[in-house]
């Protein structure tokens, strides 16, 4: 049967504490293909050791205390001379570090490309990510093509699903797969099996003639075509077999649903990905959890864009019935009409059962505290009062159970404005929302007109200013939230007369206002899962986790993150052991049956 290399594209340095989670998408893909008789060679370099090995440690260990001093420096007024001198020195050291990391990555990619040729692998699939990772994916494709022009190169992942034709226009990949890649890849590999000895051109012609769902290809004249989108439907998903991959954080990202039950937000790309909401059968979700427990994993992050409390409560009941002792986090929307007594009480009961089953963190998209902006600009479908009532229901469930849950609230600032509403009014409405909502963290992001969102397709309506030529820059844009706006890469995007840099500065101003309220910023639900599992307690613990991991990330001195990973993995295994019933052999049978 056909053999495929699956490579997870990545950057030369960590972007987040959660970069080293098991990659559920690649795991599902590999398990699905192997179950159909194909041979899969999986290369996932996103590990603690990989990022550490790519780093010149003496430089990193100089940078970490330097950044610590800079983070603690006075923020009001002009920076002191010593801050300017130290900042310049750290920038110089950082450039040296980055150059060495790029050289090391190039060497590793060259080695992997040679291994592809030496082992005669006919097809290479790459999971694309944004920014620098996309640049390295393109470079790897170039290296493989140079060494063996007959290898079929396929791009997949979020980037291919969002940018579609642009991926093939701006890279050497032969094909792109959008959406759930396992079904399209199975068809392509089956086709290769049916064409023994066929060259790359013959394979690509055969793929084009069959117009496979979710596949994009080039015609002989260079025109890019795409098969129709595969209808959104939940099928029984393959369960990954992770084993003991060193350097990975033992948190399983579990796909409990596709799409969004609302799916109408103007800024969101989910409507492009999935036209309707499709939850998985609860029994399948529980079976996957049991399979992961058998592999020594007891911490989960639900990957769906929204787990409604009613659906979450059904999953929670399944967890309790199965006797699983797990911890999990999820994203959810505010509940419509949550202030009505009957709706409020129902929401409280739903969160109660979720807390008893192991829910410990939830992410809620609030976007803004100004109702007119949320309605006319965001089309969020909820009001500020509904956001606040949902938060109060969660806190009431917390009080009744005695179990704490960390709530992370997402806000976009600044926003497009409508007639009669000023930026300062939105700013103040946001702060009022935070006073009433009392989140454990606020995720603050600047506005972005992502391709296929209403903000992109109807840019004039919302006041965004950009040309189509911004797409290549957007595909390779590296988000660097820990840097001051003046150091962010420029993008030719404006909003109602405000430049991109101005938008970043206004976003930073609001972030400082949030922090002045004593609320941590930019700690997501998955980060809360990590920091609690690693033993950080309370708000002070969350702040310490954020500071220490930030220093690790900006300096590339990853010793703190290595320790955090070890503690998380020990806790995940402990939970899995507590959940297990029967012998190890019986649990392995459960895992195999679920797969």
**Amino- and carboxy-terminal Cα gap:** 20 Å
Can you tell me the overall shape? Answer: globular
**Main sheet summary:** 7 strands, mixed
Alpha plus pi helix count: 24
Structural class: alpha/beta
Report the portion of residues in β strands: 5-15%
Low-confidence stretches: 582-592
Order of strands side by side in the largest beta sheet?
2-1-3-4-5-6-7
Overall number of strands:
17
TL;DR of this structure?
The protein is α/β, with parallel strands linked by helices.
Characterization of the model:
The protein is an alpha/beta fold and 595 residues long. It has 24 helices and 17 strands. A 7-stranded mixed beta sheet has the order 2-1-3-4-5-6-7, sandwiched between helices. Strands 8-11-12-13-14-15 form a 6-stranded parallel beta sheet, with helices on both faces. A two-stranded antiparallel ribbon has the order 9-10. Helix 3 (57-71) crosses helix 22 (538-555). The longest helix has 38 residues, at 81-118.
């Amino acid at each position: 049967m056909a053999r495929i290399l699956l490579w997870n594209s990545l950057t030369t340095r960590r972007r987040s504490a959660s970069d080293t989670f098991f990659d559920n998408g690649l795991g599902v893909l590999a398990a699905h293909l192997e179950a159909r008789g194909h041979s899969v060679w999986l290369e996932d370099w996103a590990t603690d050791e990989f990022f550490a090995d790519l780093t010149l440690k003496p430089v990193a260990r100089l940078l970490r205390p330097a950044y610590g001093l800079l983070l603690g420096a006075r923020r009001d007024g002009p920076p002191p001379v010593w801050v300017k001198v130290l900042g310049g020195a750290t920038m110089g050291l950082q450039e040296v570090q980055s150059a060495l990391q790029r050289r090391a990555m190039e060497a590793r990619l060259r080695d992997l490309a040679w291994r592809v040729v030496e082992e005669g692998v006919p097809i290479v699939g790459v999971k694309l990510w944004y920014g620098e990772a996309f640049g390295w994916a393109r470079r790897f494709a170039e290296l493989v093509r140079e060494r063996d022009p007959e290898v079929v190169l396929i791009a997949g992942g979020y980037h291919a699903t969002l940018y579609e034709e642009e991926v093939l226009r701006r890279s050497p990949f032969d094909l792109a797969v959008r959406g759930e890649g396992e079904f399209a890849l199975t068809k392509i590999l089956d086709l290769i099996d049916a064409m023994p000895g066929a060259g790359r051109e013959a394979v690509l012609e055969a793929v084009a003639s069959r117009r496979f769902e979710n596949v994009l290809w080039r015609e002989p004249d260079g025109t890019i075509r795409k098969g129709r989108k595969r209808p959104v439907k939940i099928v029984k998903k393959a369960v990954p077999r992770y084993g003991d991959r060193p350097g990975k954080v033992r948190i399983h990202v579990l796909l409990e649903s596709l799409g969004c039950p609302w799916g109408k937000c103007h800024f969101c790309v989910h409507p492009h990905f999935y036209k309707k909401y499709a939850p998985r059968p609860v029994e399948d979700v529980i079976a996957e959890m049991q399979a992961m427990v058998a592999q020594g994993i007891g911490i989960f992050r639900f990957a769906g864009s929204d787990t409604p409390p009613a659906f979450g409560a059904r999953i929670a009941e399944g967890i309790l019935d199965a006797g699983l002792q797990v911890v999990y986090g999820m994203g959810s929307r505010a509940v419509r009409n949550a202030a009505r007594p009957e709706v409020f009480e129902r929401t409280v009961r739903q969160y109660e059962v979720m807390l008893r089953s192991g829910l410990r963190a939830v992410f809620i998209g609030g976007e803004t505290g100004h109702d007119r902006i949320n309605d006319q600009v965001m089309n969020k479908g909820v009001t500020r009062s509904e956001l606040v009532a949902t938060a109060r229901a969660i806190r009431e469930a917390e009080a009744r159970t005695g179990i704490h849950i960390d709530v992370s609230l997402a806000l976009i600032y600044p926003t497009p404005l409508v007639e009669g509403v000023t930026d300062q009014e939105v700013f103040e409405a946001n702060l009022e929302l935070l006073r009433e909502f009392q989140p454990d963290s606020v995720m603050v992001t600047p506005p972005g007109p992502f391709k296929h969102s209403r903000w992109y397709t109807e840019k004039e309506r919302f006041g965004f200013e950009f040309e189509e030529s911004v797409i290549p820059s957007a595909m390779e844009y590296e988000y660097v939230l820990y840097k001051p706006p003046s150091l962010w890469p420029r993008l030719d995007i404006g909003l109602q007369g405000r430049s991109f840099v101005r938008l970043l500065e206004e976003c930073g101003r609001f972030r400082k206002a949030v922090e002045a309220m004593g609320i941590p910023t930019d700690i997501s639900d998955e980060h809360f899962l990590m920091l609690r599992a690693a033993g950080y307690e309370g708000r002070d613990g969350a702040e310490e986790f954020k500071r220490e991991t930030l220093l690790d990330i900006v300096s590339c001195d990853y010793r703190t993150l290595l320790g955090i990973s070890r503690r998380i993995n020990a806790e995940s295994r402990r939970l899995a052991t507590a959940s297990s019933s029967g012998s190890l052999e019986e649990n392995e049978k459960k895992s195999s049956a679920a797969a």
